Amino acid sequence: MIFKLRFIDRLKYYAERMLSGGAVAQLLFVALIVLLVAVSGGLLAYWVVPSEYRLTDEVWWSFLRLTDPGYLGDDQGLWRRVISTMLTLSGYVLFMGTLVAIMTQWLFRNMRNLEQGQTPVTFKEHHVILGWNSRTLPVIRELLTFSPKRGEGSRIAALAEDITEGPVNDLLAERWSTWTHRRVVLRSGSILNPEHLHRVAIANARTVIIPSRRNDADSSVSNDANVIKILVSLDAQTAHLDEKPAVVAELSDGGKIPVALHAYNGPLQIVPGDLMVARILARSALYPGLASTVNAILLDSDQSQIIPMQFSQFEGKTWREVFGYFEEVTPCGIVRKEHDRNKTMLAPPANEVIQAGDQILILAAQSDSKTPLSKPRRYVPSKHTERLLTGAAKVRKQILILGWNQSVPLLLKELGMEPESHYRVTMISTSAVEERKAKLERALPSNWPGTLEFVQGDYTDMSVLKKYRLEQFDNIMLFSSDRVGTGEEADARTVVGLMVLDYLLNKLPAQAERPHVLIELHDQSNEVYVNHANSDVIVSAVVISHVLAQVALYPPIRSVYDHLLSSLGAHLSIRYVPESMHRPMAVAELQQYVIAEGGVLIGVNPDGQQVRLNPETQEHVFCGPSTQLIVIMPDNPV
């Protein structure tokens, strides 16, 4: 069959081409139609209604009736009135309706373009966030809370694919003051397009934050590739600058960190998201209750935060002397610059001498005075000879893992680094056993201390969990699945699994010890559904968001978190007081008791329910069997 384009199709094609040319072309097209109708009406009146008027007068008469309905009552004669009525009705459609429609569409398009924010900002020394995902809004909250309220470093510019689809509404839903809202500016554009990066004044930024979103194993690979591509683009666009902006980027795969460092020749901090979540979960599994401390440090803006500050007056003084100069804040360690790298020393030895350029890590709230005392507090050695207790079961031997994601191999690797440890781990997931075995063989050393049992099944099915004696496990850990499309769907599955688990645990005999339950979530709003007794919750997205924001504000903090959550060196831990000290005690006395063992007391949990970081030294705490001392303790206490 031979294709033949009809004449009417040709006219439609040319009309479509003209109408797609914008408002001016559309107006010209409508003007052409109005002219044709006016000429046609004038010719019809000239031929049908004989009069003394010339053809040009009839065309003008037709144009006036077409554009102004007010002339309708001035005409005489039946046929002239009929033609006038037809022209007036056509004018309503062609002249008024079409003109209003074209102008309305033009105005809407321009307002839409203005709403999208494609004009480059004029900020300097501001914070830039590339991408809008589950990390972005928590990062903005952290930056607004801890950055200066005015001046340099107070403004934030975020680049999203289309800010009108959600980011604008997300910001408007925040209960901020008018000035706080004005500190945040959204721009639309692709984070992978180098030209769009100019919309957030990337070259003038103080810091650039690149959060990553991980929903499944495949997206984590593509996200890391996107982050590295952005770093290459940033390096090219800032090549002419003497001082490049500092970049904080999140990678899911820690193995790509050397590639990322090679891609950007400027100050770059990499936050390995999966590894950090795995370390938090490992510490929480080894020390039940520690998750609430991590949440207090990383999530609660009302609690104290770790801040690096430089005090030149401490040069030449020992760590023990420095400790006595602070009343409202708690010194935690030292950050020292060695060979262009930060060396972090948490809970350093008492005789460690402060050198020029050292930064003191202090645990302080925003309202606390960070000014040192004019004279140090007198150090009173502890009179107690008994050592702090580490709990009845320091290393949990039997662990049940429900679900699977990229953090599980890293978690097991971190658990294996704990000295003198041995584990028996049972893993239930819908993921294929061969796939999980292959990933663990690549991640774990051959001498990993423990045995692994792989079970393929759905842990939300009660019949699957009924096959196990749940009371025999020391820890039960629920992970957000990476086989589900979004973080919200993964959380929904985790909540259902917890309800099934909680139901079975409540059926245990009264004398059976309930296992410690640890849950990983993506969305903080789902935390209310899983707040059960003897369970800890880690919201991975919010934790990583806090770390990204804190590293952007205080670059040495990244190495601090690495040490704080690691199993090696000085790290976060929990201690209990011996029975001889079960009485009301001042925080200052507890602090000296911890110092005597080479550690630092950063908080207390009097009843095991609520963590209080950086308590006042004069405050008294009733110490009992369940009182937890939150400490930073070296590997080999004094």
Task: Outline the structure in words.
With 638 residues, this protein is α/β, with parallel strands linked by helices. Among the domains are: 16-116, Helix Hairpins (Orthogonal Bundle); 127-266, 3-Layer(aba) Sandwich (Rossmann fold), CATH 3.40.50. Helix content is 38%, strand content 18%. Strands 3-2-1-4-5-6 form a 6-stranded parallel β-sheet, with helices on both faces. It has a 6-stranded parallel β-sheet with strand order 13-12-11-14-15-16. Strand 11, helix 13 and strand 12 form a beta-alpha-beta unit. Helix 2 runs antiparallel to helix 4 (78-116), helix 3 (55-67) packs across helix 4 (78-116) and helix 5 (136-146) packs across helix 17 (540-553).
State the gist of this model.
The protein is of the alpha/beta class and 638 residues long. Helix content is 38%, strand content 18%. Helix 10 crosses helix 13.
